[in-house]
Amino acid sequence: MSDPIRLALVGMGKIANDQHYPALTSDADFDLVACVDRDGSCLAHLPYFVTIQELAESGLTVDAVAICTPPQVRHDIAQFALEQGWHVLLEKPPGATLAEVVALRETAQDRGLALLASWHSRFAPCVDQAREWLAGREIKSGRIVWREDVRVWHPRQHWIWEPGGFGVFDPGINALSIATHILPDPMFVEQSELFFPGNCSAPIAAQVRFRDRKGALIAMDLDFRQEGKQSWDIVIETAGGTLTLSNGGADISTTGAPPPPRDDVLPGEYSALYRRFAELVRNSSCDVDVRPLRLVADAFLCGRITRVDDFIE
Amino acid sequence: MSDPIRLALVGMGKIANDQHYPALTSDADFDLVACVDRDGSCLAHLPYFVTIQELAESGLTVDAVAICTPPQVRHDIAQFALEQGWHVLLEKPPGATLAEVVALRETAQDRGLALLASWHSRFAPCVDQAREWLAGREIKSGRIVWREDVRVWHPRQHWIWEPGGFGVFDPGINALSIATHILPDPMFVEQSELFFPGNCSAPIAAQVRFRDRKGALIAMDLDFRQEGKQSWDIVIETAGGTLTLSNGGADISTTGAPPPPRDDVLPGEYSALYRRFAELVRNSSCDVDVRPLRLVADAFLCGRITRVDDFIE
């Protein structure tokens, strides 16, 4: 076993505290050596820096960083980290634009560093079973329903309503990270309707119609205004039965053939993510799948915009 | 010399008549064998079809098609053409979304067919000189000004105001096709302001701020409401002088070192495009540079939208 990877967490918001910190502290492959946060949030027993530049100047030895800031500032931090010779994990979405993510991949490859554009939802318990079940089956149609209460899941995350925050596509991109992973054919946007609150620069709801290359319709319904029961479901109709992946990939059911068996003991999504990152760091290689972000960009590019009521948190 | 490539023109609108037809009929590499247009426009002496399906059913031998329809319908026509075993040239922009263009490239590669995502502005007379002059120079900043009168240049092109028509980015993508070709480093969107008429689903003006990987600012000013003098200019400040590429790449001037010499006799933009396409067809290879379209998608993805006066043609 190699020495642990000395990692700094950058951006100590909700996702870093809820997910990255527990995954890292229970992973022998990583040694969490510092945290960076412009607002001064820090897990008390770790060296703390306000900016990544301060971290670099401190002389602390760092092998890698995980960037959990809002997407709008991720690129500059990642570019700086790569210039220090540090490997980089990017929370999802990997950036506020596609071109900046592609440019980071080029930088990482040129410098022989690992870069992971992470899609945690792909590591939900039943996603690989769904992928295996769908492989080789003829897709007839699909339906993605991702309806959640923004006030519950994204409290005070003002960046989500700013340009580059993506609004309801911030959770919606999780659905697309699963769909692009499990569906056998590429899909693309055929029609997109975006609902923008009058006081926001990002949509609060969206209806997007995709087609796969063979013409199957995949309809996506995203809504941030869902109270009561929440939905994170993907249903795929095939010529050989229906697959239902629900609760964001935690549950699976099928008609026709049963789903394939899975391992009894599965790591959590973020533990699996860090296993993947450790593998990339050991090999100095990149895993940057831009497909989910590209579909979101396409939904904006050809979106028809409707104004709806202001959003007041 | 090989046999001429038997080509059908699909979508007989302004660009097909103004540019493709004259370029093709003076090119010995191509034999224009049919035209396809849903509205029945056709150059009289050619076999004519309303749809590409009719063309396929006619039994006429076709090697390649050039697709000049509005972008919203390009993908399905191109996919059908590739399924017939025909090589494909796509007018710019190559589609209404990025993912559909990437999917077409995969289809073409899988089938061993040529696919050209054409960017005619890159073949403007002084573009290669500009690229050569900028190579290796340190870029300080840039300014792209593309201001034209939509009523003059896009009469009755209602598709331009629909989702996937891109509005002012339809000409603006020409500027980006040049900028991505001549600038030594990749650039990406830092800030984007889009001005949508109340009655349109696409912007009539845009202010986009790009940065290149080394931090240089490239400011882009697009406006469809320009009366009087029209502007299609790119100015790049470098550590070794200023380059001005004006009139859409037709004129060049520099301070410091003069621009490199160029050939006395240059083909027109579309003649050069068809030379490139002939080369790809002979080699069954693809040239699909998505960078200009990706930057437009990014400008929409992180755009801040302002409503402006309705557009009445």
From TrEMBL, chains A, B:
It holds the Pfam family GFO_IDH_MocA. Gene3D superfamilies: Dihydrodipicolinate Reductase, domain 2 (3.30.360.10), NAD(P)-binding Rossmann-like Domain (3.40.50.720). GO terms for molecular function: nucleotide binding. SUPFAM superfamilies: NAD(P)-binding Rossmann-fold domains. Residues 5-115 form the Gfo/Idh/MocA-like oxidoreductase N-terminal domain. Coiled coil: none annotated. This is Gfo/Idh/MocA family oxidoreductase. It comes from Qipengyuania algicida.
